[in-house]
């Protein structure tokens, strides 16, 4: 069977309506008959009312997608011929790829898959995963054969949560397919909505590898400056001043130290190292970077404790306020947040920790981490304050507003350079 139909007539289903799937569904829903599908019935109900709790898409944008509708019923996808899978690909507690959401989505689609259909994956995976894991799941449930009865493609997502300058249409799209015809279909399909253009690769494995190294490269660069920050702190040199001086050279990369969380940079390298170890390669540099970045939360906590001791503040029973819980600034996304590492490390010192984040839903944080966020910090109550996330709201408070939460003798540690150097007791 050949994939000969025009992408312009595609009847599309976007499977998974999170930070990646919803913006994609909106773009396709402006030009194609599109169904946004998610197993979360609450999420679907909210989207039908024009409410996006991720804050990635405004109500006006949802309304502009006049050919988009939402559903949590798999049966509604039976008349689709093009499926785009955007489910999460997290890691487990042992930092191994957790492919259960991806396999579950593939098996569900296997129940509605028909001859001539195509399934395109956007979820970040290791090279070979689409053909080695997803295709067998599709075939096993549907009874159909890939490249005989149906086709697959891979076009990695490049969404940056909280970034409203770079949207789906503005980010060049990498595409691929299981046959030359499938690759051309996928490329043409995305070219219809992505004004920035497309880049068609020779195979699905190349596209998978390209995606996973994008974030691995960033992870390693941040690990380098984190390592340097630890060194410069020991040498008594201000890290930011060093980076600003080095940045006067045109080809110096402007990375900053910090916590590396989120669903991409702190996760994707483990997909690549998993595959590397399967084929007998030990990726020493990648794993070293991961160890450095995974240890930054406990480092921040230990530095804060050291400052408290120098100020004769007894950490045992002390109250510490952590400002910020999301994985990045001005964004409600707290998936894989590494702020929680600071909290746990402080609790090991028997410190009482309050966490305040105006962007994060306190009920979701409690469900995910068992952590009760503080809705409004108490003024004059804290022995130490850690500015962990650079929300604009914290910048607007300024040094005086943040210090007002502390006692007369209070230690302030700034992870993200929110405050001036002379307004804090320590920073990365």
Summary, kept brief:
The chain is an alpha/beta fold and 428 residues long.
How widely separated are the two ends?
58 Å
Cα-based radius of gyration, to the nearest Å? 23 Å
Widest β-sheet, arrangement of strands:
3-2-1-4-5-6
Helix count equals 14
Strand content: 5-15%
Instruction: Name the shape in a single word.
Output: elongated
Low-confidence stretches: none
Order of helices and strands: EHEHHEEHEHEEHEHHHHHEHEHEHEE
> Which percent bin holds the helix content?
25-40%
- Give the total of beta strands: 13
Mean pLDDT: 95
Structural class: alpha/beta
- Largest sheet: number of strands, sense, barrel closure: 6 strands, parallel
List the helices and strands and how they pair.
Elements: E1 11-15, H1 21-29, E2 33-37, H2 41-48, H3 59-64, E3 68-71, E4 82-85, H4 100-110, E5 118-121, H5 129-142, E6 151-154, E7 173-175, H6 180-191, E8 198-200, H7 204-235, H8 239-246, H9 268-278, H10 284-294, H11 296-310, E9 319-323, H12 339-348, E10 352-356, H13 362-369, E11 382-387, H14 392-403, E12 406-414, E13 426-427
Parallel strand pairs: 1-2, 1-4, 2-3, 4-5, 5-6, 7-8, 9-10, 9-11, 11-12, 12-13
Helix pairs in contact: 4-5, 7-9, 7-10, 11-12
């Amino acid at each position: 069977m050949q994939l000969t139909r025009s992408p312009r007539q595609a009847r599309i289903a976007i499977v998974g309506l999170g930070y990646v799937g919803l913006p994609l569904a909106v773009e396709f829903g402006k030009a194609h008959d599109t169904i946004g599908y998610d197993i979360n019935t609450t999420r679907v109900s909210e989207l039908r009312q024009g409410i996006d709790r991720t804050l990635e898409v405004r109500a006006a944008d949802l309304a502009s997608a006049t050919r988009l509708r939402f559903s949590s019923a798999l049966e509604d996808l039976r008349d689709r011929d093009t499926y785009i899978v955007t489910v999460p690909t997290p890691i487990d507690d042992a930092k191994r790829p957790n492919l259960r959401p991806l396999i579950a989505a593939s098996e569900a689609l296997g129940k509605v898959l028909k001859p001539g259909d195509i399934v395109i994956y956007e979820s970040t995976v290791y090279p070979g995963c689409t053909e080695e894991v997803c295709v067998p799941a599709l075939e096993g449930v549907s009874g159909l054969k890939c490249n005989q009865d149906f086709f697959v493609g891979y076009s990695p997502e490049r969404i940056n949560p909280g970034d409203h300058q770079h949207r789906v249409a503005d980010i060049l799209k990498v595409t691929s397919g299981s046959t030359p015809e499938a690759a051309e279909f996928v490329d043409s399909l995305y070219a219809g909505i992505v004004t920035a253009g497309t880049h068609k690769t020779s195979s699905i494995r190349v596209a998978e590898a390209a995606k996973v190294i994008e974030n691995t490269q960033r992870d390693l660069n941040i690990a380098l400056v984190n390592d340097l920050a630890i060194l410069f702190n020991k040498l008594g040199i201000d890290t930011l001043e060093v980076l600003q001086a080095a940045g006067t050279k045109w080809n110096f990369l402007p990375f900053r130290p910090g916590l590396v969380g989120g669903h991409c940079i702190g996760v994707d390298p483990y997909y690549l190292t998993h595959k590397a170890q399967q084929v007998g390669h030990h990726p020493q540099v990648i794993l070293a970077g991961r160890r450095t970045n995974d240890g930054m939360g406990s480092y921040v906590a230990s530095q804060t404790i050291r400052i408290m001791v120098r100020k004769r503040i007894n950490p045992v029973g002390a109250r510490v306020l952590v400002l910020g819980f999301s994985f990045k600034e001005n964004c409600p996304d707290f998936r894989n947040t590494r702020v929680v590492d600071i909290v746990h490390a402080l609790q090991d010192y028997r410190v009482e920790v309050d966490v305040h984040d105006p962007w994060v839903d306190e009920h979701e944080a409690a469900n995910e981490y068992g952590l009760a966020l503080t809705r409004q910090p108490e003024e004059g109550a804290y022995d130490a304050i850690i500015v962990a996330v650079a929300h604009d709201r914290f910048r607007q408070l300024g040094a005086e507003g943040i210090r007002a939460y502390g006692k007369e003798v209070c230690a302030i540690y700034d992870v993200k350079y929110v405050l001036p150097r002379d307004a804090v007791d320590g920073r990365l």
